[in-house]
Amino acid sequence: KLKDGQNFPYKFDLSLIGLFACKDGFSTPADEEQFVRVNGSSMLYGAARELVRSLTSRGPWGELFLPTLSFYDKAPKAQGEPAAPAQPN
User: Fold this and answer.
1) Which of 17, 41, 79, 81 would be a feasible disulfide site paired with 71, CB 3.0-4.6 Å?
2) Which residues, including other chains, have CB under 8 Å from residue 10's CB and lie 6 or more apart?
C-alpha cells in the first residue's frame, strides 16, 4: 500500500514476440488464425507474467503478480480488423 505522495515502486516496459503456426488442423484459415491468436497470446502473456514475477521477487518491495487474462474472442474479426482487447479473468 502506497502512502500519499509515494510512487509505485516498479516501472517497466516488456515486449515479447512469438511466431506461431498451426499445421493441418483446421478446415478454414479463419479458424486457424483464431487458434493461433488465442493460444499464442496466452503463451506469451504467461511467459510475461512469470518474467515480471521472477524479476520483481528479487527487489526490496516483493513480487508483482500480473492478473490473468483471457484472449478468447467468440466472434473472430474479419481480416484487417484489430482484435478485441484481452479481458481480465
Assistant:
1) 41
2) 56, 59, 61, 64
Q: How far apart are CA 80 and CA 33, in angstroms?
A: 12
Residue that the C-alpha cell 507474467 belongs to: 49
Residue 37 to residue 31: CA distance in whole angstroms? 10
pTM: 0.70
Mean pLDDT of all residues in 67-88: 73
Contact call for residues 36 and 71 (beta carbons, < 8 A) = no
d(CA 47, CA 55): 12
CA pair distance 84, 6, nearest whole angstrom: 34
- pLDDT one-digit tens code per residue, 11-67: 889 999 998 877 777 888 888 888 888 999 999 999 999 999 999 998 888 898 999
* Alpha-helical segments (H) within the chain: 29-56
